[in-house]
């Protein structure tokens, strides 16, 4: 399937989930992440969930990261350049929703992309080759291309892999893992 079709299909699938479904599936994903050998790193980038889009509830993963005393990095999106700036999440960080209901830090301690060891990547769909479909603005492809080649890219999905996304681009950055409630995919 093509990205546009997948985007529409998976938005509908997510929309059909209840709030309880989102929380239950999100907890299963967080528990599956604990089985991965990724917890010896320092800087972990995570997205803050857009509740209105029924994104994975990342609060469970935030709790794991806090419990393991990791440096948590969150982003602010610039919709003029389609780039993100990254900030360390601290007790003093003020979070505010932007025009698109994305919770973002108002400001804080900037962290360069090259310093990030692990990125938890939001997505709508993914395939068995590690390609992903997001909302289509390219924020994460730009961001991930600025990270070190060793940075682990871990997709989080409520749904299982598609066989193949037909219209991928050379600039699309593939995932290293994708974690669903049912299984962990390695690419």
From TrEMBL:
It catalyses: (6S)-5-formyl-5,6,7,8-tetrahydrofolate + ATP = (6R)-5,10-methenyltetrahydrofolate + ADP + phosphate. The lineage of its organism: Bacteria, Pseudomonadati, Bacteroidota, Flavobacteriia, Flavobacteriales. Pfam families: 5-FTHF_cyc-lig. This is 5-formyltetrahydrofolate cyclo-ligase. The keyword Cell division does not apply. Its EC number is 6.3.3.2. Its cofactor is Mg(2+). Belongs to the 5-formyltetrahydrofolate cyclo-ligase family. It comes from Gaetbulibacter jejuensis. It comes from the Bacteria. InterPro entries: FTHF_cligase, FTHF_cligase-like_sf, NagB/RpiA_transferase-like.
